[in-house]
């Protein structure tokens, strides 16, 4: 009994021990699984913030291009070069990142990318602290000790002409070449952004469950929407702050937000982006090269001996591939893509259409400013609020439609083509939403009040101001009580200036005629004249049209992009998408802002003057010619892009018919085969009946 009890207790003890051991094993597995999943989720959260910061930085820098143009007194074509430098930086390292991505610690490379983006943003904002205070063209007194000042005197030009120092010495003192920091900073920012998307998505694809991966990547795309929206909102706020905010007395600034000389605090948002990028890099520094794949945590040694992180098998194979083995597949893949008619035509469509879109997006804030007379702050805000949310809605519903109705490639191509064509036709309405040129004497209107355009500075002179000996190089506009603006108080013939700063009033102006008087004796105030209520209405109509066009175009963008993906073989998709992106950046992202900027420069009516002499940033444009070029060139480019689109539809139509015929033939064969089987099944089975019949006959004969 004692032995039996002891044995029983021993068995119970063993059973309890085994149970405890199993429970410990399960708990350990659960803990390990929780830790692994949490690491992946931490990576996802960090990557989402990296997406947010990179898109926020890009949107902010693009929104500040007009401010950078005015601050450094450079033409729009040079601003286009600065904008395209980001794509140059991206292209410099794209191939290396694509090749080395699976062979390095991807989280730490992403961390390095975030640090480089922060460094690039810091370099962009650095010139603000090296150039000193911003000095805009000003011919009027801002001194509080002076209540009156004569502005129309002989030898006035000697007072307002730029410095007569040697140009080299003057430029060295004023540091007018500081825009190079912005150029280099943008290149570094492009280098830093390159690894984030491809390495981040590949990391998620490698270690997430296949069914979870699309959801995770979809969540990341939310950040690519919130980032630009946040960047534009910050840009709108910074654009309404004076560039030297915190360093000077705001009362000394006589400029309004709509003045062509106004420069917002462009550097402030750039430094915010730099700080955020540096912070986002920190979590990636502490992440491992690899993680257990979701659902395969049991392969980890729970005792802790085999706790090494590992790559999935397919990645191990990729990591062991040599450059020679990879190069063997490169030429065949490239040859296959170059002979893929649908793919190559789609690349042509993308290059042509992105040449139109990138140029328009780059200079859209500037277009709204010049065409409708609003401030840069308002233009940036309207673009962010009106365009981005509706574009996201279009992408979402387009993708939802593709998923719900399981649309094939041929139908998707038709949806993408016809929605794009509909938006293209609506686009031409924008040519009618015009706002009259600002009335500036000697530029858009004569001193007698007759509409006329002039690119010649000598037309700024008239009999009413010829005795004043004014300079035509300075841009310091005043608005006369007759509703006409003048390039300067001197050119308006104003004799006396009362008050200071924003409260200055110019009187006894010989070029400003007052009602009831044949000779001018009117008054003026600093700044340009209001463009009128008609411009506000046209701006509203333009925004509504932009909203509708963005919704229609973005709705068809996802089906159109699926044509590209489905035209590629599974083994060619990665290379094909990369080559498509490379072509887009090389032939559209880099050249488009440059030649768009050059076209915009060709519409300039009045150039600003640098402190050391020479042309600076443009102060006033011919808005009619600006509109025709800004809207007309994209219209022509997009019209040309529909030619290869038609060829794509014809090729896909032929493929669709061939596939339909093959399906019908296969169905017919299957139906014929099923009918033959049915006929065989209905025929009596004689082999089974024969023995029974014979047996029956025998029995009957025996009975007889």
Automatic annotation (TrEMBL):
Record region (Disordered): 1-25
Membrane-crossing segments per the record: 72-97, 109-130, 215-243, 263-286, 342-364, 379-400, 539-564, 628-652
Membrane topology category: Multi-pass membrane protein
Compartments (UniProt record): Cell membrane
Keywords annotated in UniProt: Cell membrane, Disulfide bond, Glycoprotein, Ion transport, Lipid transport, Membrane, Transmembrane, Transmembrane helix, Transport
Superkingdom of this protein's organism: Eukaryota
Reaction(s) this enzyme catalyzes, per UniProt: L-thyroxine(out) = L-thyroxine(in); L-thyroxine sulfate(out) = L-thyroxine sulfate(in); 3,3',5'-triiodo-L-thyronine(out) = 3,3',5'-triiodo-L-thyronine(in)
Protein's UniProt keywords contain Disulfide bond: yes
PANTHER family in the cross-refs: ORGANIC ANION TRANSPORTER, SOLUTE CARRIER ORGANIC ANION TRANSPORTER FAMILY MEMBER 1A2
Family of this protein: Belongs to the organo anion transporter (TC 2.A.60) family.
Protein name: Solute carrier organic anion transporter family member
Native source species: Anolis carolinensis (Green anole)
């Amino acid at each position: 009994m004692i032995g039996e009890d002891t044995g029983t207790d021993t068995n119970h003890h063993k059973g309890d021990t085994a149970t405890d051991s199993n429970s410990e094993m399960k708990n350990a597995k659960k803990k390990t699984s929780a830790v692994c999943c949490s690491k992946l989720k931490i990576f996802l959260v960090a990557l989402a913030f990296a997406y947010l910061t990179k898109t926020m930085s890009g949107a902010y820098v693009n929104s500040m291009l007009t401010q950078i143009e005015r601050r450094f007194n450079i033409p729009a074509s040079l601003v286009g070069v600065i904008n395209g430098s980001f794509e140059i930086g991206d292209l410099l390292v794209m191939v290396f990142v694509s090749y080395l991505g699976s062979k390095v610690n991807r989280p730490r490379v992403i961390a390095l990318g975030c640090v480089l983006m922060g460094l690039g943003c810091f370099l962009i904002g650095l010139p603000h602290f090296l150039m000193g205070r911003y000095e805009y063209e000003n011919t009027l007194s801002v001194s509080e000790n002076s209540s009156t000042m004569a502005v129309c005197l002989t030898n006035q030009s000697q007072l307002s002409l730029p410095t007569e120092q040697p140009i080299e010495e003057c430029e060295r003192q004023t540091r007018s070449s500081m825009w190079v920091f912005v150029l280099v900073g943008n290149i570094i920012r492009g280098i830093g952004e390159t690894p984030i998307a491809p390495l981040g998505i590949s990391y998620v694809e490698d270690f997430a469950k296949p069914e979870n991966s699309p959801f995770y990547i979809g969540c990341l795309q939310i950040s690519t929407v919130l980032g630009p929206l946040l960047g534009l909102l910050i840009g709108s706020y910074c654009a309404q702050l004076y560039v030297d905010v915190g360093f000077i007395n705001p009362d000394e600034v006589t400029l309004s937000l709509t003045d062509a000389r106004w420069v917002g605090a462009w550097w402030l948002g750039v430094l915010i982006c730099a700080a955020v990028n540096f912070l986002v890099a920190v979590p990636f520094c502490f992440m491992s090269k690899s993680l257990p794949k979701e659902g395969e945590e049991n392969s980890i040694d729970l005792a802790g001996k085999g706790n090494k992180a590992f790559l999935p098998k397919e990645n191990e194979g990729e990591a062991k591939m040599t450059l020679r083995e990879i190069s063997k597949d490169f030429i065949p893949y490239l040859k296959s893509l170059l002979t893929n008619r649908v793919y190559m035509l789609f690349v042509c469509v993308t290059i042509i259409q992105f040449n139109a879109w990138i140029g328009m997006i780059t200079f859209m804030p500037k277009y709204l400013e010049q065409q409708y007379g609003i401030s840069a702050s308002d233009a940036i805000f309207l673009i962010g609020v009106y365009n981005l949310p509706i574009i996201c809605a279009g992408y979402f519903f387009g993708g939802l439609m593709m998923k719900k109705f399981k649309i094939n490639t041929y139908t998707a191509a038709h949806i993408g083509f016809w929605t794009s064509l509909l938006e293209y036709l609506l686009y031409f309405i924008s040519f009618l939403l015009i706002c009259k040129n600002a009335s500036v004497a000697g530029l858009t209107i004569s001193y007698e009040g007759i509409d006329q355009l002039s690119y010649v500075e000598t037309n700024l002179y008239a009999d009413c101001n010829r005795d004043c000996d004014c300079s035509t190089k300075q841009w310091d506009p005043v608005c006369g009580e007759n509703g006409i603006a003048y390039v300067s108080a001197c050119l308006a013939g104003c004799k006396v200036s009362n008050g200071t700063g924003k409260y200055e009033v110019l009187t006894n102006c010989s070029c400003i005629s007052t009602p009831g008087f044949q000779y001018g004796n009117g008054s003026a105030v600093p700044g340009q004249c209001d463009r009128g209520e008609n411009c506000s209405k046209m701006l509203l109509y333009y925004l509504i049209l932009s909203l509708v066009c963005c919704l229609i175009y973005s709705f068809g963008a996802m089906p159109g992009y699926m044509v590209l993906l489905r035209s590629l073989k599974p083994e060619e998709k990665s290379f094909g998408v990369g080559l498509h992106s490379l072509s887009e950046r090389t032939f559209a992202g880099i050249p488009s802002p440059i030649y768009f900027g050059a076209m915009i420069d060709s519409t300039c009516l009045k150039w600003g003057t640098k402190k050391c002499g020479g042309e600076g940033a443009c102060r006033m444009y011919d808005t009619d010619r600006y509109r025709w070029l800004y809207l007309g060139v994209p219209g022509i480019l997009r019209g040309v892009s529909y030619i290869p689109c038609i060829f794509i539809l014809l090729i896909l139509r032929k493929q669709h018919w061939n596939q339909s015929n093959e399906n019908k033939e296969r169905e017919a064969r299957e139906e014929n085969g099923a009918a033959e089987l049915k006929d065989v099944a209905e025929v009596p089975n004689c082999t089974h009946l024969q023995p029974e019949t014979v047996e029956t006959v025998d029995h009957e004969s025996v009975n007889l």
